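User: My instructor asked us to take a sequence, write out its structure as tokens, and then describe one feature of it. I'm not sure where to start. Here is the sequence I was given:
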Amino acid sequence: MDFQVVVLAGGTSESLSPLISKDVPKALLPVANRPVLSYVLDLLESSNLKDLIVVVEGQEAARLVGAWVSSACVDRLSVEVVAVPEDLGTAGALRAISKRLTASDILVISGDLVTDVLPGSVAATHRRNGAAVTALLCSVPVSGPSDAAVSGGKDKAKKPNRLNIVGLDTTKQFLLHIVSGTDVEKDVRVHKKKIRAVGQVRYQ
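Assistant: Let's start with the prediction itself. The structure tokens for your sequence are:
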């Protein structure tokens, strides 16, 4: 399948300290005695998606990930590990490696993704529908007051404004609008032509 795959593998974010550090970047965080990145690479290989760019934040983190990839993926996958500056975000990371993206179809996947959906199925759906963009989405539960009470208030609930706000048509087949919760103060603005085109936009 002639897709080029970009794996966003993160770096050494302080949000996961002390689990990750300068010596153990996020991509190499052990999960069931295996680096978390290995699960994503296995998933891609099972879908015959083998042309990969693994994007890592920071030169040292990229060096460590590259060393692991060289030993773990030899003769299995074509993997290029690329270092980008920290805190670029998804769009910034893709912009930083844009000259390396030469295929007509690009699949972008998180390096710590846990899913039972095969990437090949998503790629096939994208190709079959001739879509400009295909997105795999899931709902994220937002903890309420009861959760905070159980934990004694020590664990803060994930704030909705840190999540993406997604607008779909009523059949949930077409992605019409997506915006970061941090960019929304009160109301979500939607172009009237989008509503006229589908009749109704359902936000999640």
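For the description part of your assignment, you could build on this observation: The chain is about 30% helix and 20% strand. Try explaining in your own words what that tells you about the chain.
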